[in-house]
């Protein structure tokens, strides 16, 4: 490589061709030898004739310069020039590049790789040696650290990838020290540390070793691009409390977390916001216990890392519950209070009886203490403070003397209902409040309370009372202590004081209470070893287990952390499943200290190299074509008028390579459609799919990219060739020109004006098709039990017939591909069409398709034609989404064509295959 300052040439020998330009100048100016004169007598008759012919001796000078410029551009293009702004001025020392390739580095791996390549190119241009080292252990023997040609380091970088565990900077420091002592590194070097921006064990040791080689330039991600880490979630009375961590910066930041089930379907979603100078953001995911138990993972939306994903194991579905043995059983253990509790919780937990010492050793997620098992051991308070759940039941002993492990202060003595000295009737359970964890459970009219312990006035505040009797006295109270909960049933666990343990409401209430349990340790056998079933890669996606993975002994499971031999992922031991995640409760996310030895910090958004080969050769090709036009014009073979037109066209084409490139920006709002004759003319002259503009830049850009991808696939797979999609405003634009309209529906969608509603209804009646997509995987339905609010707002003003799920024999399932599922970015949500299309005077077709699977994201492509949005089910689900999109297009254009009986034999034969 040859360099002239920041300008370097990948093929410098091609520059020798510039020496031929003077020779080319002479050749272009060369003329044939002058003709010899011969006297021919008859020519004397022509002596007086006018002579207006002009024959130049050589080409015009400006044309020669033009052709020399073409040759110079070709020579310069073949020399592969690159403009690289220097990061180090006049650097002569060898280059050492240290790259953090742990899970946190995955968030900016592309930018980090580009920066490393830029540094290696700079070293190659300066004729310096280079070495590269990665700080995360891959599980294999690392490549020797030694100085070599930059091309060798570039090959190592090309084969490297981020790991799904953290960095090991102590080992990296030892490698650098060993290489220096062995003479593999120079005593003075230009050291660049491409850091992930997070502090960890060994950061100071690595900086100290690197500073012994020279000043250390640490390049770290910018504030808005640093990795996010998800702490272990904590159960709450209404769902899960989620905490995200980051390196505290001066800029605020927002993020969204989606809870996914085993089938990839979104169950719930919540937004979080980091305040300026804050490294922690919290939010609560509100959802019922049965939905919480279906969560397989929690994921931060957008480009992910292994630290921004939280896998959930069996411990979140069947918590281990310890039943403290009672001091007496009255000789009838099957009729004891513990028997009723154990029978009630056995279907949804793993109950185990034992002494307090035994139960604390097994690290249960919840403890149950009946009145006969009452103890004041201080270790129970520590258990609750560390996140455990203590469920207590009242009885004669508690009525006689209270203690500190209670959510409210109790009166001494029990309340007797229906006794000889008490004229009150036994009380029924009142309706549960909306803020109670028991909300939604129907009270059992047969469950009456004869006796209970009462709370002191003023201590049973509304936030501590979860259930009441019809007379307003508390039945169940609870309080948060530290990270855990104390829950008190003011009756006995057996039927001595109430009929509640004999009712079907009893196990359902206990199931809601155990929803507060954090799960505790993995609930597998005590012996054996956990085997990795599916691993989590650095980008947060599930993959096969790497070769470096080893089984984890069951006794060592709780102390295991993510590493090459124990990658994060889902592990199995017998029938039990447990999740090993990167981030633990005590994992601290802090910035690299600014006082590291010899360190100076810089941002990752550094200068980028500019390559000119394409622009130079394209310009030369255009100029060469223009030279042909000029030659024809000078020879008189091209009329002047055509010459001017051609010259203008070629000058415009010449300027195109020099114009700034326009790339698709996903956050840019598409230009609003123009409602005039030009819009109607454009829409009518070609086949376009359309999407409704919502005013949200992200949603509109996604709709445009989605229909662009769908149009390309329809063109590739069928005889239909749709033009690029068009944006429409239902309030102003005509809809009749479009066979299919994609309508993304936001939760805050506005109601249609009467004119727009009439326009939409007329479009549907005339044979149009509208695909309504709420893009939320029915989260609104799952969480609130009600349809999407934005969809209700829009459909309220449109004249629609009754709707129903797509039947298995609907034309939409076979209009092009044979399908029974209709996935998009999400899958599993029902898709709705007209329940009785035959009654809609539309030739047996439905005018609407309503779903929530976010089809636009699955169809979306970028400017290069590559998918631009993630799909939960991977490439297979994206392919099925495209097939459904093709079916929609064919359905919109052909209607009930495939419903004709003539197609039945072919369809049956295809199904048989």
UniProtKB/TrEMBL annotation:
Pfam family, one: BatA
Domain DUF4159: 688-893
InterPro entries from the UniProt entry: Aerotolerance_reg_N, Class_I_gatase-like, Double_TM_dom, DUF4159
Keywords for the protein's UniProt record, in alphabetical order: Membrane, Transmembrane, Transmembrane helix
Alphabetized CDD domains for the sequence: A4_beta-galactosidase_middle_domain (cd03143)
Coiled-coil region list: none
Location of the Aerotolerance regulator N-terminal domain: 7-81
Transmembrane segments: 6-28, 61-83, 612-635, 642-659
Name the UniProt record assigns to this protein: N-terminal double-transmembrane domain-containing protein
Species assigned in the record: Maricaulis salignorans
């Amino acid at each position: 490589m040859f360099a002239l300052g920041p300008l370097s040439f990948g093929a410098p020998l091609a520059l020798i061709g510039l020496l031929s330009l003077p020779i080319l100048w002479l050749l272009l100016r060369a003329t044939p030898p002058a003709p010899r004169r011969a006297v021919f007598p008859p020519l004397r008759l022509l002596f007086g004739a006018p002579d207006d012919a002009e024959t130049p001796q050589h080409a015009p000078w400006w044309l020669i310069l033009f052709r020399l410029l073409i040759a110079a551009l070709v020579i310069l293009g073949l020399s592969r020039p690159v403009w690289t702004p220097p990061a180090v001025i006049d650097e002569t020392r060898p280059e050492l590049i240290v790259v953090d390739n742990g899970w946190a580095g995955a968030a900016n791996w592309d930018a980090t790789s580009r920066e490393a390549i830029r540094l290696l190119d700079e070293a190659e241009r300066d004729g310096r040696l280079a070495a590269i080292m990665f700080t995360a252990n891959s599980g294999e023997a690392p490549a020797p650290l030694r100085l070599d040609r930059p091309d060798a380091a570039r090959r190592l970088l090309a084969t490297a990838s981020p790991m799904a565990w953290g960095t090991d900077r102590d080992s990296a420091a030892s490698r650098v020290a060993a290489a220096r002592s062995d003479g593999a590194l120079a005593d003075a070097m230009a050291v660049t540390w491409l850091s992930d921006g997070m502090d960890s064990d060994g950061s100071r040791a690595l900086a100290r070793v690197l500073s012994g080689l020279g000043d250390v330039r640490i390049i770290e991600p910018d504030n808005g691009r640093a990795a996010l880490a998800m702490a272990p979630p904590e159960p709450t009375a209404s769902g899960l409390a989620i905490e995200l961590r980051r390196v505290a910066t001066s800029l605020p930041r927002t993020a969204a977390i989606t809870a996914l089930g085993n089938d990839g379907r979104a169950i719930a979603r919540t937004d979080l916001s980091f305040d300026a100078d804050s490294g922690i953001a919290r939010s609560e995911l509100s959802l019922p216990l049965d939905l919480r138990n279906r969560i397989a993972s929690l994921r931060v939306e957008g480009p992910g890392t292994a630290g921004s994903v939280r896998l959930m194991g069996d411990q979140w579905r069947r918590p281990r519950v310890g039943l403290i043995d009672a001091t007496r059983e009255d000789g009838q253990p099957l009729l004891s209070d513990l028997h009723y509790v154990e029978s009630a919780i056995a279907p949804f937990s793993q109950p185990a009886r034992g002494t307090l010492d035994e139960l604390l050793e097994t690290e249960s997620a919840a403890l149950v203490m009946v009145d006969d098992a009452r103890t004041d051991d201080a270790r129970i308070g520590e258990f609750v403070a560390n996140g455990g759940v203590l469920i207590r039941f009242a009885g004669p002993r508690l009525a006689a003397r209270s203690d500190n492990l209670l959510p409210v202060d109790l009166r001494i003595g029990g309340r007797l209902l229906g006794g000889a000295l008490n004229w009150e009737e036994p009380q029924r359970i009142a309706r549960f409040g909306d803020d109670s964890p028991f909300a939604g459970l129907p009270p059992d009219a047969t469950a009456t309370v004869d006796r209970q312990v009462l709370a002191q006035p003023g201590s049973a505040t509304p936030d501590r009372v979860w259930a009441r009797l019809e007379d307003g006295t508390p039945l169940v109270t609870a309080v948060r202590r530290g990270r855990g909960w104390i829950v008190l049933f003011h009756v006995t666990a057996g039927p001595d004081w109430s009929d509640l343990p004999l009712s079907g409401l009893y196990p359902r209430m206990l199931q809601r209470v155990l929803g507060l349990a954090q799960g505790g340790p993995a609930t597998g056998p005590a012996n054996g070893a956990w085997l990795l079933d599916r691993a989590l890669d650095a980008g947060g996606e599930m993959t096969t287990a790497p070769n470096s993975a080893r089984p984890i002994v069951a006794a060592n499971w709780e102390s295991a952390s993510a590493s090459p031999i124990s990658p994060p992922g889902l592990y199995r031991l017998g029938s039990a499943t447990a999740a090993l995640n990167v981030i633990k409760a005590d994992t601290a996310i802090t910035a690299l200290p600014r006082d590291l030895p010899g360190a100076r910090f810089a941002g990752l958004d550094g200068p980028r190299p500019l390559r000119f080969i394409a622009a130079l050769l394209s310009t030369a090709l255009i100029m060469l074509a223009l030279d042909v036009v000029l030659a024809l014009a000078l020879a008189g073979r091209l009329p002047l008028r055509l010459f001017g037109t051609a010259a203008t066209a070629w000058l415009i084409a010449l300027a195109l390579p020099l114009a700034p490139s326009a790339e698709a920006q996903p956050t840019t709002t598409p230009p609003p459609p123009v409602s005039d004759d030009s819009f109607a003319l454009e829409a009518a002259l070609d086949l376009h799919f359309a999407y409704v503009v919502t005013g949200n830049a992200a949603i509109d850009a996604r709709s445009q990219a989605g229909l662009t991808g769908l149009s390309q696939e329809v063109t590739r797979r069928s005889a239909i060739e749709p033009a690029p999609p068009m944006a429409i405003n239902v309030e102003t634009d005509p809809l009749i020109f479009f066979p299919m309209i994609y309508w993304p529906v936001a939760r805050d969608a506005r109601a249609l004006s009467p004119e727009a509603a009439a326009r939409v209804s007329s479009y549907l009646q005339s044979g149009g098709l509208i695909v309504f997509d709420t893009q939320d995987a029915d989260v609104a339905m799952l969480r609130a039990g009600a349809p999407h609010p934005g969809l209700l707002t829009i459909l309220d003003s449109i004249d629609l017939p009754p709707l129903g799920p797509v039947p298995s024999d609907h034309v939409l399932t076979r209009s092009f591909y044979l399908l029974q599922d209709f996935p998009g970015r999400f899958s599993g949500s029902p898709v709705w069409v007209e329940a009785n299309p035959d009654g809609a005077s539309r030739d047996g077709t439905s005018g609407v398709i309503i779903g929530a699977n976010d089809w636009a994201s699955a169809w979306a492509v970028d400017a290069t034609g590559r998918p631009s949005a993630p799909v939960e089910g991977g490439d297979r689900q994206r392919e099925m989404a495209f097939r459904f999109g093709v079916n929609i297009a064919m359905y919109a254009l052909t209607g009930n064509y495939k419903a004709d009986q003539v197609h039945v034999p072919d369809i049956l034969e295809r199904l048989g295959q």
